[in-house]
Amino acid sequence: MKYFVALLVIVACVSAEEWKPKTADEIKTLRAACLQEHPLSEEQMNRMKVFDFPDEEAVRKYLMCTSEKMDVYCPHEGYHADRIAKQFKMDMVEDDVKKLAEDCISSNPKGDKANDVHVYEVHKCLMASEVGQKVKSYIKSRQEQLAKQA
Known about the structure:
Recoverin, domain 1; 8 helices; PBP_GOBP_sf; two-stranded antiparallel sheet; globular; mainly alpha
């Protein structure tokens, strides 16, 4: 039975042809589910709102959960640079984003790929890159638009 479950996990992780980037609404739903599974303090939430991700277990577990639910990370396979590129390319060339993601993944080996510290380090690297700058700009712009509508 445990081999069957392991096989299902592998199949789920490598089903790349079915994967599609998540919409903003889907990401919002996934994040809410991860907050239910891995509650964060108000201070942690406030820090993350300004893109300051503290290196704390609860934050690392939350980041791992969101990465898994977005299907850009799999405990068995690790990160999927191609999916990261598709999800976060913004106005960049997808191959350039994939290269940045691959560089972050390879520069942060942690042995066990199903490790929240590894997930955190790759996330930190990506957020410090051009990809992260584009994501931050997009989120800030979206927050400003929502504030104007309110």
